[in-house]
Write a structure and sequence with these properties.
- By secondary structure, the chain is α+β, with helices and mostly antiparallel strands.
- About 20% of the residues lie in helices and about 30% in strands.
- The strands form nine sheets. Strands 16-15-21-12-13-20-17-18 form an eight-stranded antiparallel beta sheet, with no helix packed on it. It has a seven-stranded mixed beta sheet with strand order 5-6-4-7-8-9-10, with helices on both faces.
- Helix 1 packs across helix 7.
- The radius of gyration is 29 Å and the shape is globular.
């Protein structure tokens, strides 16, 4: 990339020093110069650079990003008769998983006096979904707002997992800037790259927040320079590369302009948001336009459309036109109107352009549609998200235990629920399968589809799913498959087995570096998505549970060849019945079991992992023969503790001829009766 900022050997930067400050700017460009890494571009002549000092005084925050951008945008605004609202900021908080986005939002809400002094507030209050709290991750993007110095700041908390990248892509339409949260030890990670790339494509202003700065092994200089290099790789503009840096500890609620000098609150962060992120650009007197980017459902109000008002004024009781394209429009009426204030939705009579609002009364509204003026309204460009890379087959439950636990078991129930998911989940696709009771669900990754399965299970659905498969493409008669960037954090003592495991799955290492002073190594691989299926458990086993695996979609590449994902076969139940201790005592010698005594099983159900390749049929229901010979000694049976597999583990475990039976209270694995038993070895105990 041709850099717009060049350094030359004879270049002498001019520093404008604040007499009240002893510290220089935390600008990444300056950091690069200090560290001795000289960047140059042949097409650029010498340019005098001015570095502004960043001190702990809040009023000294100057953001060259917003200043440079606003001068250019103001000229364009005058031509298009647009204006900027100074009393509103719309921001999204984006980051890699576990870098502290939701915790930082908690601190921002508390310091903005959103809650009463005596009010009990639980941790990660934005993670309101039960599944989010159980897994400790953010799955759905959510809106809230705070007020700081007469400026309303609309905040959108986004997921960190790459599988939910569609949520991030969708909400970036509503904001003008992002807070890019980066861990002070790990630095930019795969999802950091993805969300930053999308934000830069939208032209958004970026404020980098180096979070968890209070960690003992924090290395802020490395993190800032790595983030700056990431900006360069993603073809960021000069103004975007000169980003504002804020150092913070989300859990302590502190922020500052230098890692050693943090303020007692998040004041520097709020000041950076006000100064560096521009207000929304609006056409106040134009025709009404609002792009729907999210949908919620309320039992009393029905479907609620959420989005940002781009132009005009929206009023309660107003007649509007709902458009998907120029030719497809329909009329509706806004029954209720809400804006976000603090942590709640507050009724409003009127909403002006630039603000984020929620609209009720349009029952058939969909994400991506435009609520426009009844007479002269025009649709806004539709939301586009990246294509899915993994698909799974959903079908009705055909096991002998069908209908015992589930409430919705028919193909019609299953079809309605899957297609209803598409209304909110833009990154997912559903197609009809080969038979009337089979449906193909495509998503960004196995976690993306697993969350849907878990939600359906809790809603009372009973069904079966097949193994995940990658979605290949054929271009110019060449077979292409998706590749992903996998980063593995592993202690040095377990690095050998992990490297060997990734090599077997066609992974190619392109980077390896030490991670702080904790004796951890960071490995980066480019690996086929096929090789990632079932990899997480294998890596945890090889590293004794200490490795952390993160992945992000990279691109499509040539077919990498055959990959063996599982070396061991399955132990399969020989007949229907109830397991007995007598049968399990001899069965456990053949491998590890999933079931204990007294469990109901059926023929074809997978009851364990075979210790050798190939499947093995076992009679786990055999009872001890009763005789009239009295035994002088009672025989004690010692059974191993059965393995307990979660839904994610089961989906990673199954292979081509196996399925997972999902019910509200049980998760079982079984052989697919429709497929031939290629490797079955009939062996009866």
């Amino acid at each position: 990339m041709e850099m717009a900022v060049g350094f030359h050997r004879t270049l002498t930067p001019s520093f404008s020093v604040n007499p009240n400050s002893r510290r220089l700017s935390s600008s990444p460009i300056l950091a690069k110069r200090i560290l001795g890494q000289t960047l140059s571009s042949p097409a650029i002549t010498k340019l005098p650079l001015t570095f502004r000092p960043l001190t702990s005084v809040r009023s000294s925050i100057k953001c060259s990003v917003s200043e440079a951008t606003e001068t250019q945008l103001e000229i364009a605004d005058k031509k298009r008769q647009l204006m900027r609202r100074r009393d509103i900021r719309n921001i999204a908080i984006v980051a890699h998983v576990d870098h502290g986005k939701t915790t930082l939002v908690d601190a921002m809400l508390k310091q903005a006096k959103v809650f009463r002094a005596n009010q009990f507030v639980q941790e990660r209050i934005m993670d309101s979904n039960d599944l989010e709290r159980e897994r400790g991750i953010t799955i759905l993007s959510k809106n809230t707002s705070i007020t700081y110095k007469d400026t309303k700041i609309n905040i959108i908390d986004t997921p960190g997992h790459s599988d939910f990248g569609g949520e991030v892509e969708r909400v970036l339409n509503m904001v003008e800037g992002v807070l890019l949260v980066v861990d002070s030890v790990e630095g930019p990670m795969p999802q950091t790259r993805f969300v930053l790339k999308k934000a830069l494509e939208f032209g958004h202003a970026v404020v980098v927040v180096v979070n968890k700065i209070d960690r003992p092994s924090a290395r802020p200089d490395f993190v800032i320079n790595s983030t700056f290099e990431l900006f360069i790789e993603l073809n960021a503009t000069d103004e975007q590369c000169d980003f504002q840096v804020i150092y913070a500890s989300g859990i302590k609620g502190k922020a500052g302009l230098s890692p050693e000098n943090l303020a007692e609150d998040l004041g520097p962060l709020f000041e950076a948001i006000i100064r560096c992120i521009p207000g929304p650009r609006i056409d106040k007197d134009g025709a009404l336009q609002m792009l729907v980017t999210n949908i919620e459902y309320d039992e009393h109000k029905g479907r609620i459309a959420i989005g940002r008002l781009h132009a005009g004024v929206l009023q309660r009781g107003m007649d509007v036109r709902v458009c998907t394209s120029e030719d497809a429009c329909r009329y509706a009426r806004v029954s209720e109107l809400f804006v976000y204030e603090k942590f709640n939705r507050v009724p409003a009579e009127t909403v002006e352009a630039g603000d984020i609002c929620a609209v009720c009364g349009i029952d058939d509204i969909q994400i991506g549609e435009t609520i426009a003026d009844k007479i002269s309204g025009r649709p806004l460009p539709a939301i586009r998200v990246e294509e899915p890379t993994v698909r799974m087959a959903f079908s009705i439950n055909t096991s002998p235990f069908v209908g015992r636990e589930g409430k919705y078991v028919t193909s019609r129930n299953l079809r309605d629920r899957l297609y209803r998911e598409l209304e909110r989940n833009l990154a997912m696709k559903v197609e009809d399968g080969e038979t009337a009771d089979t449906f193909i669900v495509s998503g960004r990754g196995t976690l993306h589809i697993t969350i849907l399965i878990e939600n359906m299970r809790r809603e009372g659905y009973e069904f079966m799913v097949g193994p995940p498969k990658v979605i290949n493409k054929r271009v110019d008669d060449k077979l292409l498959e998706p590749f992903e960037i996998a980063t593995v954090e592993v202690p040095e003592v377990y690095m050998g087995p992990v490297v060997e495991l990734l090599g077997k799955r066609r992974g190619q290492m392109f980077d390896m570096q030490g991670l702080g002073a904790e004796g951890t190594t960071l490995l980066k691989y480019k690996i086929p998505t096929r090789g990632l299926l079932g990899l997480r458990n294998a890596i945890l086993t090889a590293s004794r549970g200490t490795a952390v695996l993160n992945t992000i979609f990279d691109s499509y590449g040539p077919w990498a060849g055959d990959i063996t994902t599982r070396d061991q076969g399955s132990l399969v139940a020989f007949e229907d019945g109830t397991t007995t201790s007598y049968a399990l005592s001899s069965s456990q010698e053949r491998g590890q079991l999933f079931v204990g005594p007294g469990s109901d099983v059926y023929k074809g159900q997978i009851v364990g992992i075979h210790q050798r390749p190939g499947d093995l049929s076992l009679n786990v229901c055999k009872k001890k023969a009763a005789t009239n010979i009295r035994s002088n000694k009672e025989q004690t049976v010692i059974l191993d503790t059965p393995l307990v597999y979660s839904l994610d583990d089961c989906i990673e475990y199954i292979q081509e001829d196996e399925m997972v039976e999902v019910t509200p209270s049980s998760i079982r694995m079984c052989k697919n009766p429709k497929l031939a038993k290629k490797t079955r070895v009939d062996y009866t105990i």
